[in-house]
Amino acid sequence: VPYPELVPVVFFCLKQTTCPRSWCIRMVSNPYPFVQKAKLSEETSRTAARVSIMVILLNCMTLGMYQPCENIDCSSERCQILQAFDAFIYIFFALEMVVKMVALGIFGRRCYLGDTWNRLDFFIVMAGMVEYSLDLQNINLTAIRTVRVLRPLKAINRVPSMRILVNLLLDTLPMLGNVLLLCFFVFFIFGIIGVQLWAGLLRNRCYPEENFTL
């Protein structure tokens, strides 16, 4: 096979040399270091990554412009434009997920769902699918709409250096537990000392003025 790091066949029929899958592999090679980039088109992968970053930035702007208190029935032109952009962004993310599944496969160690950030992308796309299906049935669940806030996190999966920093931060969180426990005891002890020294000093110290009226 041309790429021994990847699954030989996906969806029971798409081999690595098949035209649709080979094109998908060239697109998704940039975020995955285990794919041999020397055999792939660097320009194609970089272009796909840049387009994905631009769509994520567009999503951040649309989320910031959305006004939930004023756009309840979405009757204004501004809300309809934002809704059209949101539909375009969701379609782009869904197509991106399908391309990655075709290139990497679905289940397995180095397949699509084998990566933690890809599982987050899968959850975001599935939540959007549930949201749009409920809108067609005139059912509105605000809790599902809040999943849109997680969409900017997809940028972490597009920048390899950012992925390294986030993974290092997550790896150091268990080590910070002892530091947080020490800080808690220090603040707790000083809180007890403050209560014992100054407890009741300000009791009944606030009096209204003589000419004070409500």
Compute the gyration radius: what is it? 26 Å
Strands, total number: 2
Structural class: mainly alpha
Just name the CATH architecture of the largest domain: Up-down Bundle
End-to-end C-alpha gap: 85 Å
Global outline: flat
Q: State the helical fraction.
A: 55-70%
Question: Count the helices. How many?
Answer: 6
The tally of structural domains comes to: 2
Could you name the CATH topology of the largest domain? Four Helix Bundle (Hemerythrin (Met), subunit A)
Which residues sit in consecutive blocks of at least 5 with pLDDT less than 50? 36-40
- Average pLDDT confidence is 76
Main β sheet profile:
2 strands, antiparallel
Q: Widest sheet: strand order?
A: 1-2
The arrangement of helices and strands along the chain is: EEHHHHHH
CATH class of the largest domain: Mainly Alpha
How much of the sequence lies in strands comes to under 5%
The CATH H-level superfamily of the largest domain is Voltage-gated potassium channels. Chain C
Description:
With about 210 residues, the protein is mainly α. The protein has two domains: about 10-30 and about 50-65 and about 75-160, Four Helix Bundle (Hemerythrin (Met), subunit A), CATH 1.20.120; about 160-195. The protein has helices at about 20-30, 40-65, 75-105, 115-135, 140-145, 160-200, and strands at about 10, 15. It has a two-stranded antiparallel sheet. Helix 1 (about 20-30) packs across helix 3 (about 75-105), helix 2 runs antiparallel to helix 3 and helix 3 (about 75-105) crosses helix 4 (about 115-135). The model is unreliable at about 35-40 (pLDDT under 50). Its main location: membrane. One of its GO terms (biological process) is calcium ion import across plasma membrane. Keywords: Calcium, Calcium channel, Calcium transport, Ion channel, Ion transport, Membrane, Transmembrane, Transmembrane helix, Transport, Voltage-gated channel. One of its GO terms (cellular component) is voltage-gated calcium channel complex. This is (spotted green pufferfish) hypothetical protein.
